[in-house]
Specification:
The complex is a heterodimer. The model of chain A has no long low-confidence stretch (mean pLDDT about 90). By secondary structure, chain A is an all-alpha fold. Chain A is elongated, with a radius of gyration of 17 Å. Chain A is about 80% helix and about 0% strand. By secondary structure, chain B is mostly helical. Chain B has one domain. Chain B is about 85% helix and about 0% strand. Chain B has helices at about 5-30, 35-40, 40-70, 80-100, 105-110, 110-130. The longest helix of chain B has 28 residues, at about 5-30. Classes of the chains: A mainly alpha, B mainly alpha. The interface of A and B includes residues 45, 47 and 54 of A.
Chain lengths: ~150, ~130
């Protein structure tokens, strides 16, 4: 199980790197510049500030998954807290993917449809990964049972 | 630096961070987010609120950590990495405040501008100290 989680963290980490790189195309694909043109300068500035900080958080999660695997699987209280936080983060994002965002205005091109499915898969994978890590840190997987 | 002082400092920042969480809700009303976003497309509105909520969740999580378990940020290894990350996080927020936000608006709201600038400087200082002195 430990090896499986280590591989999962490696895949999750690199997927987050891919997400961070792909994020540079999101403003272009969703035409943010044009759509934000109607907002006041302050709202535009807040928009970009929030977006950049969310991007930084994703980059930090990638660093954690790729460089601090042992710590994330160490069973400490802080590792459990961090895994819970990231589980909550991605679970909410997955919920938003299905029930939150109104994606009707996004063009239904092949690229966009593939990107949407890949994103959904990524969010699902990350939820499973961090839920498994939480169970591992709590000792449930190590003992071979789940409560 | 004494660990006790750093723990106290981190608990203090926990209170400041809770204040920031509340300030986000006040700002939404004061800066009329809803009215300003009313004319924009649905997707723009939704992404704005989602990003806003995620930022608030990070600050809330950090506030909880600082108030309840400040020692976790001081125990070396990952604690040091987390403190370092948030030191940079708040340092970048100082830079954003000084270089990116509309100067005219900052001049009009000079009191709040200086207040939040000080808050971000204090947060940056405490997390940087927590990174260095452990």
């Amino acid at each position: 199980m430990k090896e499986l989680l280590q591989i999962g963290l490696m895949i999750g980490g690199w997927s987050l790197v891919a997400l961070c790189i792909a994020s540079f195309w999101i403003p272009k694909v969703l035409c943010w510049r044009e759509k934000l043109a109607g907002l006041t300068p302050l709202m535009r500035e807040l928009w970009w500030t929030y977006s950049i900080y969310v991007w930084i958080s994703h980059a930090f999660f990638a660093v954690l998954a790729l460089s601090f695997r042992d710590w994330l699987m160490g069973g400490s209280g802080s590792a459990m807290a961090m895994c819970s936080f990231m589980l909550l983060w991605w679970a909410v994002r997955l919920w938003l993917q299905f029930f939150g965002f109104d994606l009707r205005e996004v063009e239904g091109t092949l690229h966009n449809r593939i990107a949407k499915q890949l994103l959904t898969l990524l969010f699902m994978g990350l939820v499973v990964l961090y839920a498994s890590l939480l169970c591992w840190n709590a000792g449930w997987l190590e003992r071979g049972f789940l409560p | 630096m004494n660990t006790l002082y750093l723990e106290m400092g981190l608990r203090g920042t926990g209170v400041i961070l809770l204040g920031l969480v509340l300030a986000n809700f006040v700002a939404a009303k004061r800066l009329r987010y809803a009215e300003n976003l009313a004319g924009s497309e649905v997707m723009v509105r939704q992404i704005f609120y989602v990003h806003c909520a995620y930022i608030i969740s990070i600050i809330s999580g950090l506030a909880l950590l600082c108030l309840g378990w400040p020692q976790l940020l001081l125990e070396g290894g990952m604690g040091q990495v987390l403190s370092g990350f948030f030191g940079l996080f708040w340092a970048s927020r100082v830079v954003v405040q000084l270089t990116y936000y509309d100067k005219e608006l900052r001049r009009r709201e000079r009191g709040w501008d200086v207040f939040f600038l000080l808050v971000f400087v204090v947060l940056c200082a405490v997390f940087t100290l927590a990174t260095i002195y452990q």
